[in-house]
Amino acid sequence: MTFQYQVLANQLAHRIYQDELKPHQKLISLRDFARQHSISLSTAKSCYELLEARSARYLNGSIDLVYFDGQRYHIADYKSNYLGDDLADYRSDSIAQSMSLASYWLQAGLYLVALHRYLQVKMQDYQIEQHLGGATYLYLRGMNGEAEQGYYYWEPSVEFILRLDAILGYFAEDKIA
Protein backbone atom coordinates (compact mmCIF):
# COMPACT_ATOMS: atom_id res chain seq x y z
CA MET A 1 0.00 0.00 0.00
CA THR A 2 1.53 3.34 -1.05
CA PHE A 3 1.84 6.21 1.40
CA GLN A 4 -0.66 8.32 -0.57
CA TYR A 5 -3.20 5.51 -0.50
CA GLN A 6 -2.68 5.04 3.25
CA VAL A 7 -3.37 8.72 3.86
CA LEU A 8 -6.41 8.94 1.56
CA ALA A 9 -7.90 5.72 2.92
CA ASN A 10 -7.98 7.08 6.47
CA GLN A 11 -11.14 8.21 8.17
CA LEU A 12 -11.93 11.89 8.68
CA ALA A 13 -15.00 11.90 10.94
CA HIS A 14 -18.25 10.02 11.24
CA ARG A 15 -16.97 7.22 8.99
CA ILE A 16 -16.19 9.62 6.13
CA TYR A 17 -13.08 8.64 4.18
CA GLN A 18 -11.00 11.10 2.19
CA ASP A 19 -10.84 8.96 -0.93
CA GLU A 20 -14.66 8.75 -1.01
CA LEU A 21 -15.29 12.52 -0.97
CA LYS A 22 -16.87 13.85 -4.16
CA PRO A 23 -15.67 17.19 -5.61
CA HIS A 24 -18.83 18.98 -4.40
CA GLN A 25 -18.18 17.77 -0.82
CA LYS A 26 -14.83 19.51 -0.31
CA LEU A 27 -12.87 22.73 -0.60
CA ILE A 28 -9.13 22.21 -0.63
CA SER A 29 -6.85 24.77 1.03
CA LEU A 30 -9.45 27.37 1.91
CA ARG A 31 -7.49 30.46 2.93
CA ASP A 32 -8.46 31.75 6.34
CA PHE A 33 -11.64 33.75 5.95
CA ALA A 34 -10.92 35.68 9.11
CA ARG A 35 -8.81 38.80 9.08
CA GLN A 36 -5.50 38.84 10.89
CA HIS A 37 -5.91 39.85 14.52
CA SER A 38 -3.82 40.63 17.56
CA ILE A 39 -5.09 38.87 20.69
CA SER A 40 -3.87 40.00 24.09
CA LEU A 41 -2.94 37.37 26.65
CA SER A 42 -5.66 38.55 29.04
CA THR A 43 -8.29 38.26 26.31
CA ALA A 44 -7.12 34.77 25.37
CA LYS A 45 -7.24 33.67 29.01
CA SER A 46 -10.86 34.79 29.22
CA CYS A 47 -11.85 32.05 26.81
CA TYR A 48 -11.57 28.87 28.88
CA GLU A 49 -10.49 26.51 26.10
CA LEU A 50 -7.73 28.84 24.92
CA LEU A 51 -5.60 28.41 28.04
CA GLU A 52 -3.22 26.10 26.17
CA ALA A 53 -2.30 28.86 23.70
CA ARG A 54 1.22 30.20 24.00
CA SER A 55 1.20 32.97 21.42
CA ALA A 56 -1.51 34.36 19.21
CA ARG A 57 -0.28 37.79 18.20
CA TYR A 58 -0.35 37.39 14.44
CA LEU A 59 -2.52 34.94 12.63
CA ASN A 60 -1.93 33.64 9.16
CA GLY A 61 -2.68 30.21 7.80
CA SER A 62 -4.76 28.11 5.52
CA ILE A 63 -7.22 25.32 6.08
CA ASP A 64 -6.00 22.19 4.32
CA LEU A 65 -9.44 20.73 3.67
CA VAL A 66 -13.08 21.63 4.26
CA TYR A 67 -15.39 18.67 3.78
CA PHE A 68 -19.12 18.01 3.96
CA ASP A 69 -20.37 14.76 5.51
CA GLY A 70 -23.89 15.09 4.15
CA GLN A 71 -25.11 17.16 7.11
CA ARG A 72 -22.30 19.34 8.43
CA TYR A 73 -19.08 20.99 7.30
CA HIS A 74 -15.78 20.06 8.97
CA ILE A 75 -12.15 21.04 8.57
CA ALA A 76 -9.16 18.74 8.27
CA ASP A 77 -5.53 19.66 8.84
CA TYR A 78 -2.58 17.49 7.84
CA LYS A 79 0.40 17.28 10.19
CA SER A 80 3.78 15.67 9.60
CA ASN A 81 4.84 15.81 13.27
CA TYR A 82 7.13 13.02 14.41
CA LEU A 83 5.74 11.35 17.54
CA GLY A 84 7.74 8.11 17.37
CA ASP A 85 8.76 5.20 15.16
CA ASP A 86 5.76 2.96 15.84
CA LEU A 87 2.20 3.34 14.63
CA ALA A 88 1.19 3.00 18.29
CA ASP A 89 2.87 6.38 18.88
CA TYR A 90 0.06 7.95 16.85
CA ARG A 91 -2.91 6.90 18.98
CA SER A 92 -5.46 9.54 19.92
CA ASP A 93 -3.99 10.14 23.39
CA SER A 94 -0.53 10.83 21.92
CA ILE A 95 -1.99 13.09 19.27
CA ALA A 96 -4.00 15.01 21.89
CA GLN A 97 -0.79 15.60 23.84
CA SER A 98 1.00 16.77 20.69
CA MET A 99 -1.89 19.09 19.89
CA SER A 100 -1.64 20.67 23.33
CA LEU A 101 2.12 21.19 23.06
CA ALA A 102 1.75 22.85 19.64
CA SER A 103 -1.41 24.88 20.47
CA TYR A 104 -3.33 23.11 17.71
CA TRP A 105 -6.52 23.43 19.79
CA LEU A 106 -6.32 27.18 19.20
CA GLN A 107 -5.56 26.64 15.51
CA ALA A 108 -8.58 24.34 15.18
CA GLY A 109 -10.78 26.88 16.95
CA LEU A 110 -9.63 29.68 14.67
CA TYR A 111 -10.17 27.56 11.57
CA LEU A 112 -13.66 26.63 12.74
CA VAL A 113 -14.46 30.31 13.35
CA ALA A 114 -13.20 31.07 9.82
CA LEU A 115 -15.43 28.30 8.44
CA HIS A 116 -18.36 29.55 10.55
CA ARG A 117 -17.95 33.05 9.11
CA TYR A 118 -17.60 31.69 5.58
CA LEU A 119 -20.77 29.60 5.92
CA GLN A 120 -22.67 32.60 7.36
CA VAL A 121 -21.96 34.45 4.13
CA LYS A 122 -22.42 31.58 1.69
CA MET A 123 -25.49 29.82 3.12
CA GLN A 124 -28.82 31.64 3.26
CA ASP A 125 -30.25 29.30 5.94
CA TYR A 126 -27.04 28.75 7.92
CA GLN A 127 -27.47 27.57 11.52
CA ILE A 128 -24.25 26.91 13.43
CA GLU A 129 -25.74 24.01 15.42
CA GLN A 130 -26.97 22.31 12.27
CA HIS A 131 -24.20 23.05 9.76
CA LEU A 132 -20.85 23.42 11.57
CA GLY A 133 -18.95 20.28 12.51
CA GLY A 134 -15.51 19.85 14.01
CA ALA A 135 -11.82 19.53 13.22
CA THR A 136 -9.93 16.41 12.18
CA TYR A 137 -6.16 16.47 12.67
CA LEU A 138 -4.46 13.91 10.44
CA TYR A 139 -0.96 12.89 11.53
CA LEU A 140 0.47 11.55 8.28
CA ARG A 141 3.24 9.45 9.86
CA GLY A 142 0.69 7.46 11.85
CA MET A 143 -1.82 6.73 9.12
CA ASN A 144 -2.03 3.30 7.54
CA GLY A 145 -5.52 3.28 6.08
CA GLU A 146 -6.63 0.34 8.19
CA ALA A 147 -6.40 1.12 11.90
CA GLU A 148 -8.34 3.88 13.60
CA GLN A 149 -5.21 5.81 14.44
CA GLY A 150 -3.20 8.68 13.07
CA TYR A 151 -6.03 11.15 13.48
CA TYR A 152 -7.86 13.06 16.16
CA TYR A 153 -11.35 14.54 15.82
CA TRP A 154 -12.38 17.45 18.02
CA GLU A 155 -15.74 19.18 18.06
CA PRO A 156 -15.79 22.21 20.36
CA SER A 157 -19.06 23.50 21.73
CA VAL A 158 -21.09 26.07 19.82
CA GLU A 159 -20.59 28.40 22.79
CA PHE A 160 -16.81 28.12 22.40
CA ILE A 161 -16.94 28.97 18.68
CA LEU A 162 -19.23 31.95 19.25
CA ARG A 163 -17.11 33.20 22.13
CA LEU A 164 -13.90 32.95 20.11
CA ASP A 165 -15.66 34.66 17.20
CA ALA A 166 -16.58 37.55 19.52
CA ILE A 167 -12.99 37.78 20.80
CA LEU A 168 -11.71 38.06 17.24
CA GLY A 169 -13.96 41.03 16.64
CA TYR A 170 -16.26 42.53 14.11
CA PHE A 171 -17.34 40.58 11.05
CA ALA A 172 -19.85 41.97 8.55
CA GLU A 173 -22.44 39.44 7.44
CA ASP A 174 -23.29 40.09 3.80
CA LYS A 175 -25.18 36.94 2.92
CA ILE A 176 -25.41 35.93 -0.68
CA ALA A 177 -29.00 35.35 -1.77
- Portion in helices: 25-40%
Counting DSSP E segments of at least 2 residues, the number of strands comes to: 5
Shape: globular
How far apart are the first and last residues' alpha carbons, in Å?
A: 46 Å
* Structural domains: how many: 2
Summarize model confidence as the mean pLDDT.
Answer: 78
Taken in chain order, the helices and strands follow as HEHEEHHHEEH
* Radius of gyration (Å): 16 Å
> Roughly what fraction of the amino acids lie in strands?
15-25%
Structural class category: alpha+beta
- Spatially, the strands of the biggest sheet line up as 1-2-3-4-5
Sheet with the most strands?
A: 5 strands, mixed
Task: Outline the structure in words.
The protein has about 180 residues and is of the alpha+beta class. The chain has two domains: about 50 residues, no CATH class; about 100 residues, no CATH class. Helices cover about 30% and strands about 20% of the residues. It is built from six helices and five strands; from the N terminus they run H-E-H-E-E-H-H-H-E-E-H. It has a five-stranded mixed β-sheet. Strand 2 and strand 3 form a beta hairpin. The longest helix is centred in the middle third of the chain and has 19 residues. It is globular, with a radius of gyration of 16 Å. About 25% of the residues are buried. About 10% of the residues have low confidence.
